[in-house]
């Protein structure tokens, strides 16, 4: 550790928290994990063992009081984000908060209000797809106008399976939440309305889930977007987008793993989890946050983006029961210009 390294407190050391501890320790420059807050003793021990020099704390307030952290990375389940965001903001610390910012728009608004007490945005939200090189290339193509007018985006979001704790609502606010961020970013236009269609149910789905679902968004620009959200596909993890232009199409997210020719068959390895599909994007997201923090800024989706997405998720959850649900946003505060 060098004396200039950013000392990060990681709150929540489950799947994503442990993954982030490993990347900060081994792949990110200019930062170390100095504190871990995790109620599960075995996970806390594994995380501190994985990050030499780090210490476990009972809560983020203790780590702040002990002057053990310069920044906070939040990787607890979404409903526990606000109780960490608030003390971290009160201490004026930079924050990388895994998605969602908070689980609903009311709590997201409270966070926006608390952040606006400070001189500048301190929160970056972990919508890592914006750091994926293919998404970035597609955005450049759309922005450049080279391909002409964008007419539609056709998105696919497939998970091999989900844990028993995954609910119907999570199809929207745990999974499609990513498209609610990345689609307006790609297309440069806010979501105007959301509708959900229920195709034939996959007999492999857990009993309590009615999926796949088809989420239809209309953007303010008139661009239409469909998202196939499908969480029991078994074969692997797939996130793709096809952009339909006037006289061309562009595609991202095709399999790019090991290719084999065997017994008369050609095959390409597919991802099995977001942890590999987006590994480079998570690395880039955290490296750019660490670099930005050194200059007193953030470099990625901010708390306003988190709030916009929370509003879209509420409309999406309402749309699960039917209807075309409008997405209405207040004006963006100049603080987030
Ligand atoms: N960007 C992405 O692609 C992904 C993001 N996520 C997000 O990451 C966050 C964590 O998700 P997972 O790692 O999958 O969950 P997880 O359940 O594997 O881990 C969460 C950890 O937080 C701990 N925890 C619970 N309450 C806490 C508290 N008050 N203080 C400190 N620790 C607490 C739990 O004991 C657990 O170890 C969520 O916000 C989730 O939406 C999850 C998966 C992928
Ligand atoms: O954020 C994520 C998970 O929480 C969610 O459950 C998955 O569907 C997403 O693909 C992943 O990126």
From TrEMBL:
Q: Where is the Gfo/Idh/MocA-like oxidoreductase N-terminal domain?
A: 6-126
Domain GFO/IDH/MocA-like oxidoreductase residue range list: 135-244
**Catalysis: reaction(s):** myo-inositol + NAD(+) = scyllo-inosose + NADH + H(+)
Q: Does the keyword Oxidoreductase apply?
A: yes
Enzyme Commission number, as recorded: 1.1.1.18
Q: Which UniProt keywords apply?
A: NAD, Oxidoreductase
Share what the entry says about its subunit structure, partners included: Homotetramer.
Q: Which family does it belong to?
A: Belongs to the Gfo/Idh/MocA family.
Q: PANTHER family recorded for this chain?
A: INOSITOL 2-DEHYDROGENASE (PTHR43593:SF1), PTHR43593
Q: What does this protein do?
A: Involved in the oxidation of myo-inositol (MI) to 2-keto-myo-inositol (2KMI or 2-inosose).
* Protein name stated in the entry: Inositol 2-dehydrogenase
Q: Which organism is it from?
A: Agromyces tropicus
Report which gene this protein is encoded by. Answer: iolG
């Amino acid at each position: 550790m060098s004396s200039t390294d950013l000392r990060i407190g990681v709150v929540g050391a489950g799947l994503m928290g442990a993954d982030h501890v490993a990347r900060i320790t081994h792949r990110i420059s200019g930062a170390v994990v100095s504190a871990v807050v995790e109620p599960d003793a075995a996970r806390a021990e594994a995380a501190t063992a994985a990050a030499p020099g780090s210490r476990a704390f009972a809560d983020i307030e203790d780590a702040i009081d002990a002057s053990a952290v310069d920044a906070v990375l939040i990787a607890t389940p979404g409903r526990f984000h606000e109780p960490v965001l608030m003390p971290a903001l009160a201490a004026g610390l930079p924050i990388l908060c895994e998605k969602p910012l908070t689980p609903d728009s009311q709590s997201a608004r409270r966070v926006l209000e608390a952040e606006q007490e400070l001189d500048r945005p301190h929160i970056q939200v972990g919508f890592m797809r914006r750091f994926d090189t293919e998404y970035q290339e597609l955005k450049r193509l759309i922005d450049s106008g080279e391909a002409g007018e964008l007419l539609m985006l056709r998105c696919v979001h497939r998970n091999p399976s989900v844990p028993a704790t995954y609910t119907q609502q999570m199809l929207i606010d745990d999974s499609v939440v990513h498209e609610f961020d990345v689609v307006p970013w790609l297309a440069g236009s806010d979501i105007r309305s959301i509708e959900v269609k229920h195709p034939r149910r996959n007999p492999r789905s857990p009993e309590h889930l009615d999926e796949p679902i088809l989420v239809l968004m209309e953007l303010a620009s008139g661009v239409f977007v469909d998202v196939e959200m499908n969480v029991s596909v078994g074969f692997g993890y797939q996130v793709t987008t096809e952009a339909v232009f006037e006289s061309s199409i562009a595609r991202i997210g095709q399999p790019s793993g090991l290719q084999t020719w065997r017994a008369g068959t050609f095959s390409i390895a597919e991802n099995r989890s977001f942890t590999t599909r987006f590994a480079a994007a998570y690395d880039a997201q955290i490296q750019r946050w660490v670099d930005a923090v050194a200059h007193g800024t953030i470099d990625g989706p901010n708390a306003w983006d988190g709030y916009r997405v929370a509003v879209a998720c509420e409309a999406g959850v309402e749309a699960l029961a039917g209807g075309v649900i409008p997405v209405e946003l207040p004006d963006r505060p100049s603080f987030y210009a």
